[in-house]
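Hi D.,

Good news: the full-assembly prediction came through. Inputs first.
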Amino acid sequence: MTTAKIDNNEVLVDCQSVWKIFGKNAPAAMNAVVQQGLTKTQILQNYGCVVGVSDVSLQVRRGEIFCIMGLSGSGKSTLIRLLNKLITPSSGKVLVKGKDLSSLTSAQLREVRAHHIGMVFQSVALLPNRTVLENTAFGLEVQGVGKAERFKVAEQALAKVGLSDWSSHYPSALSGGMQQRVGLARAITADPEVILMDEPFSALDPLIRRQLQDEFRQLTKELGKSAVFITHDLDEAIRIGDRIAIMKDGVIIQVGTAEEIVLNPADDHVAEFVAGISRLHLVKAQSVMTPVEPYKVANPGCDITRLAKTSLDADINELIELTMKSDRDALAVVDNGTVVGVITLRDLLRGVQGIPNEFAASSAASVLEEST
Amino acid sequence: MSIPDFSNQFDSVVDSSLEWLSDHGEFLFNGLNVLLTGTYKSVLWCIAYPPYYVIAIAIALIGWRVVGVRFAILSGLALLFCNVIGLWPETVSTLALVLTATVLALVVAIPLGVLAGLAPSVDRVVDPVLDLIQTLPPYIYLLPAIALLGYGPATALLATFIVAVPPAIRLTSLGIRMTPREFIELGDASGVTGWQMFFKIRLPFAKPSIMAGVNQSLMMAFGMVVIAGIVGSGGLGESIYGAVRTLDIAKSINAAIAIVILTMILDRLAQHAARSRMGESQ
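Then the structure:
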């Protein structure tokens, strides 16, 4: 998968120690938190207020898919609604493209929502009285774009999600997966830089879900969009996210790449999540490969240039598939046109267990050192 | 003060205030009378002027477009039957009364229902008033209405209007409040203005409920036909009231059949019109 080169350091959404407390006494409870540092339970007992999001800071960069993973009640749905001010924070700041949402007038806020930050819902929320095309064009219609123009853009978006043939149908004629594609097309049509995805695939059956996950990731990368993706499924977060934030009780416990989180969970809670996760897609060739020289020593008769080729960031699953297809027991890892290592059967088995090769200066190991 | 004293005093206050109202509000009530009677008369003229078969064919044609062939034939024949039993003028004047009252009721009720649906404070005021109207027996306000507006179609129209208003307000405000939460969020997240939220999101969801309200208003108006007859509406209601007073059973049954025919035709038309509006969503 090739992606357009983008400035990965530009922060599009900046969340600065944001709090959300629900309840009648929320302002008083917020004060108590700031001045006395009460805990969540104390707030509930003393003020009858529920802490939804507690001191969350995060940055979403351009072109990045940022997953927020947590169980129900962890505050993830509240958090994502703070990012476009569907919910107003009790304290803290949310900046979208450098603009503090709380400082905007309602017209300016509408402008930000219409052009910069789109949203896709778990329930899809397709208007039942409109065709697929009209639903897709909704964002542009709201902005006052003419009919011909907005339908043209909407058609293009529908083509991207593979639903061109369905534009004149009503949503009720579509399956759940197709409806969610329309939801995505609708978000794309308005061409925002950031798309907020609120558990979009949770209600779909597993096969369709995987398909949509892959399509979503591919499409987002192709278009160079950023996304904040909410899920309660760590597998999904790993499949889709460039970075993952684990959330519990309104607090973000850990932020990192899938590899970082799996190899070095921040606490028991995260470790428990990670325990069942297959390493097949997480461990990369560069972490387990045998360097060329030791391999040549062990297998003098082998011409490594004739082995099937793979890349440094191919995961164990791909490597196993390649090996099965190949007539040899080894693969050549190629970087910039030169062979930099070899994947043997032993390397593959080690990879399945998630143990780096002792020869390789594995990136996984260095990540471990960095983060400890 | 003993209880009979109090009740006597209360009665005399009510009487004198009604008197005061009819003395000082004469101009106002005369105006209202002229307005209501005029509206009713012009609607009546429109459907009473053409010969009976033109109206029957026109309604059959509408029925064919909205409901279907079978309904069109049956309703056409049923209307011709109203003429056969010699009640065509009465049927037409009842139709005019019911239609005028319902349309006037909807003109007031739908905007009010929308307001009540959007603003809880409006709802808190409107709701008890509607409770009052709906529990109050119509006879209670017929007397003062006769005192103020006189015996005739204006009073009948007002009485019918009053019972037709509540269901339309209630169902409209319910429909407006029923917009699913996720669609409100969709609107907000897409950056809609207040007007766009209303017309593009709330109203389409409220439509089925509003149409049910229209139908209910129509049915309530038909339910008032006989009572309206007592205060001089003319038409089938007055025929029945007259037949009841003279114990003319045959005549009362004839008029009742004509009312049933009218009610069923309008009910089906309204229901199907509502359904074809929603049909887009199915």
